[in-house]
Amino acid sequence: MMQFSELITKLGSAVAASSLGTDSQLDPILTGLAPIESAGSGMISYIEGDKFAKFVGSTGASALILPMNEVIQAAAIDRGIAWIAASEPRLLFAQVIKVFYQPFRLPVGIHPSAVVEAGVELGENVSIGAHVVIQPGVKIGNGVTIHPNVVIYPDVEIGDRSILHANCTIHERVRIGAGCVIHSGAAIGSEGFGFVPTASGWFKMEQAGYTVLEDGVEIGCNSSVDRPAVGETRIGRDTKLDNLVHVGHGCLIGSNCALAAQVGLAGGVKVGNGVLLAGQVGVANQVTIGDRAIASSKTGIHRNVDPGEVVSGYPAVSHKLWLKTSAIVNRLPEMYQFFKRNQSS
Amino acid sequence: MMQFSELITKLGSAVAASSLGTDSQLDPILTGLAPIESAGSGMISYIEGDKFAKFVGSTGASALILPMNEVIQAAAIDRGIAWIAASEPRLLFAQVIKVFYQPFRLPVGIHPSAVVEAGVELGENVSIGAHVVIQPGVKIGNGVTIHPNVVIYPDVEIGDRSILHANCTIHERVRIGAGCVIHSGAAIGSEGFGFVPTASGWFKMEQAGYTVLEDGVEIGCNSSVDRPAVGETRIGRDTKLDNLVHVGHGCLIGSNCALAAQVGLAGGVKVGNGVLLAGQVGVANQVTIGDRAIASSKTGIHRNVDPGEVVSGYPAVSHKLWLKTSAIVNRLPEMYQFFKRNQSS
Amino acid sequence: MMQFSELITKLGSAVAASSLGTDSQLDPILTGLAPIESAGSGMISYIEGDKFAKFVGSTGASALILPMNEVIQAAAIDRGIAWIAASEPRLLFAQVIKVFYQPFRLPVGIHPSAVVEAGVELGENVSIGAHVVIQPGVKIGNGVTIHPNVVIYPDVEIGDRSILHANCTIHERVRIGAGCVIHSGAAIGSEGFGFVPTASGWFKMEQAGYTVLEDGVEIGCNSSVDRPAVGETRIGRDTKLDNLVHVGHGCLIGSNCALAAQVGLAGGVKVGNGVLLAGQVGVANQVTIGDRAIASSKTGIHRNVDPGEVVSGYPAVSHKLWLKTSAIVNRLPEMYQFFKRNQSS
Hints:
3 copies of one chain form a homotrimer.
Chain A: E1 2-3, H1 4-11, H2 13-17, E2 21-22, E3 29-30, E4 32-33, E5 43-46, E6 63-66, H3 70-78, E7 82-85, H4 89-100, E8 109-110, E9 115-116, E10 121-122, E11 127-128, E12 133-134, E13 138-140, E14 145-146, E15 151-152, E16 156-158, E17 163-164, E18 169-170, E19 174-176, E20 181-182, E21 187-191, E22 195-198, E23 201-204, E24 210-213, E25 218-219, E26 224-227, E27 232-235, E28 240-241, E29 246-247, E30 252-253, E31 258-259, E32 264-265, E33 270-271, E34 276-277, E35 282-283, E36 288-289, E37 294-295, E38 300-301, E39 310-312, E40 317-318, H5 319-329, H6 332-342
Parallel strand pairs in A: 4-5, 5-6, 6-7, 8-11, 9-12, 10-13, 11-14, 12-15, 13-16, 14-17, 15-18, 16-19, 17-20, 18-21, 19-24, 20-25, 21-26, 24-27, 26-29, 27-30, 28-31, 29-32, 30-33, 31-34, 32-35, 33-36, 34-37, 35-38, 37-39
Antiparallel strand pairs in A: 1-3, 2-7, 22-23, 39-40
């Protein structure tokens, strides 16, 4: 609970960094955060873009973060709502959330039920939860948090301040950078799917390579990042993966990418920097995707994608072409009737 | 092992609730349950619909639950198979299964290896398995079963008689109703995928909202239901999710829905009551799906769906149109030849 | 670290089984394995097929496994790289990996923190990791390895030499053969998604059947194989499943198949022997797929597939037809213009 003015003070440099206008007349007491549609008295919320602008007329929020739009600001003033305006309201609201809420962190220390084998190097101020298991030859940095029931195989390094959520598994030959987050149930460095067909059945190819997550990488719940036979699977700095994503063995993903839920990359896929793959996108073996390319949800990518290209469809084509052909496909019944009437010609 | 007549007695009101005919002449001893195709002597099975009716002539089952169809019943009589008929044979067979089989339940009590932190409220007759970890500020109802290696973060409530299977994770700010089932490996209340793009990279939006599962909800193995930044992610009463389903932050799902395996909902999706989404369906951000709508498997939904609408395809269109266009797409080679011959006209 | 000649000796019968040529002039000391693109001094790598042949001119590898191609071999000789040639270079390289690397195996014995309930039968030389939980009525074969935090429900059998990776869950009524591998987070024998619609909501069908994995089966990370209401879910000998695969209740999968990541099979699907399903393929209820059929990635299969058939597309058609129609779909804008100009005719 805090006054609006106190919040503004706490935001400090975040406020200074945006170009802001503020209504200093009102100073309500704020008790929490809410979405604009359902915010009640004492709540602070935000409006981003025109789609939600109408809610300024109906919200019960006591304070709002608004875009640099004087019409919306005037409406807030009319309704007696305290406000602050920012060029990026969602970004400022993310900073407001941090003032009100920090996610649960384990206390520093090693729970007595954790099994930390001999030959594990632990940094300062680590938090190791109940029933964690850390095999020999693991190196844990400073300030690392490992939630309960995590299992870490041998020959793993985890950088400073990284967080491993409950029930995830880190396999051998994994290097996790600083400030990474591995969410519940994820499997990092698991064996790549490598079977050579022979006359007498599949011959298993052992996966002797390494899996590297650079600094600031997040891996979503129940996602898997496989270890390759040789060389590396690598995910670049600050790249974020959502839940249930599969990254096959030997994939090399650049920095600052975002892969949404249920994306799947087959083996040896190369992804540039700043790439966005929406939900359920699939990428075939050995495909290369250029920097800043975007694939919309459910796209099936069987060929290389150029830097900056926006693709959709199965198989993937340019997003613009896909929009056109998707619309025309629905005219096929008429077109087919026409074809049938005229095909003899 | 029981006699057919004894089974009928045990079914009691279930039998009375259906409009039934029974053949009381035969009273075999039943030893188990089997599918109609492979049922042997001593087995009870069922037939639902015409597709399986032919098996009445070949099954080795000693007893059958049959539809209200005198031809099938006569065939059973001819072959000396005991039978009972019901208007919904599959429903009655589900009740028969319950007579023969109950899934494993942990004994009541707290396993000594479980870690239940101070400040956890436990109801009566709870079963807490080995190596379970329950953080402070958790409230567990009466008759709840928590299988081994489950982890529960702080600030969670779990309603009466709910069952949490092994290795699942319940994150902070989750409210689970009564009679829910969370299957193995599922992650409930995990952090929504919230990153705001900035000039210096992704800015992480903390997820300060709540995740609510109403009474009777089931969540399949390794599924994930994300916690939103503000407000709620909510799954309505008696809605069932299969395995490997992703529910993004802020989704609001109604009651009595069924979401099949590998369905993915992006953020802020609104789903009505009684909606059926078949396997691998994907739904884009902020889409609204009306009551009793149906999407067939692999449908990619990028736009709102009306109540009662049946959709298919990627992108989704009406199921009828999709059937038509999917058939005509296969005539495109001929149509294209025609087009090439005539395009100058 | 070993000399090239020593490696050849160690490969022994593997070398003899291939028809090989060897360059015996060079005998470098080998320190590790690497992909051809990035191999440096001391590394052994391999070349398979023309796509990678160009790298023989630039690789820093000290030794190579080459195809039976004298041009490539001559290039290696020119560059002073030791080599051995094989008709199947990738297979021989898989055998080379085994000489250099074996994955981590737990020591034999039962970790004191493991909970092995009364009435569990253990074979010889089993390895049971920390915090494993094994319920009553489980039978574990010889040489089985169970990594930390695995949970096994009652009434399970696990064959000799099988490996269960960390955090996986084996539910009741499961039979796992010899030499199987269950990867991290997988759920085997979990409850099938069985709900009968009634006027008062879903009626849960208990899943009283069995789940059988024959010898040599592998199940990838966070995959799920469901237990049926009656009868069996069965995966045949040496069939391999990648990560995040869903196998519905009552599926019967043959031997020597490979199902890539994120494949989903609905209930009662029948898959023959030697079938290949690429990533994100979906198969609808009760579909039958014949022996040696192949589905390319993202195929949506709603109808039976003949033995040996190669299918693609959503809905699935022959791969050849799909290639044709996928190309022509992109000409639809022109075709539609033509149609609009001429439709009155």
